[in-house]
Amino acid sequence: MYNILDFSLDELKKWMTDTGESSFRAKQVMDWLYKNQIWDFDNMKNIPQNTRQLLKKNFYISIPQLVKTYESERKDTFKYLYKYDDGNIIETVVMKYNRGNSICVSTQVGCNMGCRFCASTIGGMVRNLSSGEILAQVLACQKQIGEKISNIVLMGSGEPLDNYDNVLKFIKIVNSQYCLNIGQRHITLSTCGIVPKIKKLAEEKMQITLAISLHAAEDTLRTTMMPIANKYSIDEIMESCRYYINKTGRRISFEYALVQGVNDSDRCALKLVHLLKEMLCHVNLIPVNKIKENGFKQSSKNNIENFLRILSKHGIETTIRKEMGSDIDAACGQLRRSYLDSKKNRERV
Ligand code: SAH
Question: Where is the Radical SAM core domain (predicted)?
Fold first, then answer.
């Protein structure tokens, strides 16, 4: 049995012809799935009975089950906990902006990267999500909010470049006309900086935005926050970013989570200026979200604004990420964590 959401149109066409069906049935099935939001073969009315039976014998349509919803007070951020067929739980966030709805999808159950400030990585990585399982988060959320999603960020749990093939396939499918037709420029992939995979991604020459979770401009400091920094130096990351820019012409986005007393000094800001001053880029400052498992504290408002001032003064385009949904633990992996913790506690009682 296959999850039909893992199939591209071409793959389904091939399957149809290989099984003696007409290849145009593939497009009809895709239309039901993506244009009509019908996730039951029996309701695909223009597909003949015997083809439906054949589909049912060989495919399932894996839409995760919604187990919990959190809604921010301002009703602009929604966080959903979804359960896949094997019982694994992931979280997906929807943010409503004036310019459209944005979704933050998870790419793995858990994460292996070990960033010290991140809740997603606490239990390690359980498994990769398939392209169809990532896509199903978008499908389920669209149905849930009754509106279209126009932007996708791959910034939920998991390291997208550690699940390269499935993530690439997801981007290609969700971008296709037969699927949700979400433009590549409306898709952002965020990575902690896996250098060989950044280069590989550059070769795809896609128009997506690459976001690098930098968080420190010096290796010595970065290694204390992110174990991956022991493997790839900042110099190597910068070199791969220049390569990416050369190949794609796309501006890179650098994420910098500000932690009180760790990476938010004037000196840190000037180091960052020095690192990025020649680069086609944008810096996104993120007031770090406190998670209960570590001692990382959010920088003061003053420090955040001061950091922004230094970068801007030196001509580096910088924004402070609007904090949405911090009242519902909307930062990376926090919900899944607290859900698993409370489940454990309930089981212990
Ligand atoms: N693994 C990828 C994508 C998932 S994390 C990556 O590292 O980019 C998405 C972003 O959230 C990253 O920039 C990550 O560093 C950041 N992040 C994780 N925990 C956070 C927290 N507690 N507060 C603020 N940002 C956090």
Answer: 97-327
> In this structure, are 232 and 302 located in the same domain?
yes
In the chain, % helix, strand, coil (3-state, to 5) comes to 45, 20, 35
Q: Which two tokens stand for residue 100?
A: 């459209």
Do residues 332 and 215 share a domain? yes
CA-nearest of 200, 83, 64 to 139 is: 64
Beta pairing class for 65-71 and 318-320: unpaired
Q: What are phi and psi of 114, to 5 degrees?
A: 75, 15
Same-domain check for residues 93 and 34? no
Instruction: Give the CATH number of the domain where residue 268 resides.
Output: 3.20.20.70
Residue with tokens 């944008």: 282
Substitution candidate for ligand 1 out of 332, 334, 335, 337 with most atoms within 8 A of CB: 332
Residue 109 in contact with residue 116, Cβ under 8 Å? no
Q: Quote the domain boundaries for residue 14.
A: 2-60
- The 10s digit of each residue's pLDDT in 225-256 is 999 999 999 999 999 999 999 999 999 999 99
Task: Name the domain boundary from 12, 31, 60.
Answer: 60
Ligand 1 atom nearest the C-alpha of 119 is 19
Q: Pocket around ligand 1: residues whose beta carbon is below 6 Å from it?
A: 113, 115, 117-118, 155, 159, 190-192, 213, 255, 257, 286, 288-289, 291, 331-332
Domain-ending residue, one of 34, 60, 86: 60
Global pTM value: 0.95
Provide the number of structural domains found in the chain.
Answer: 2
* Residue 182 CA to its chain's centroid (Å): 15
Report the catalytic residues: 91, 332
What pLDDT shows up at residue 20? 97
**Percentage of the chain lying above the pLDDT 90 cut:** 87
Pair (169, 284) in one structural domain:
yes
- Amino acid 147: pLDDT: 96
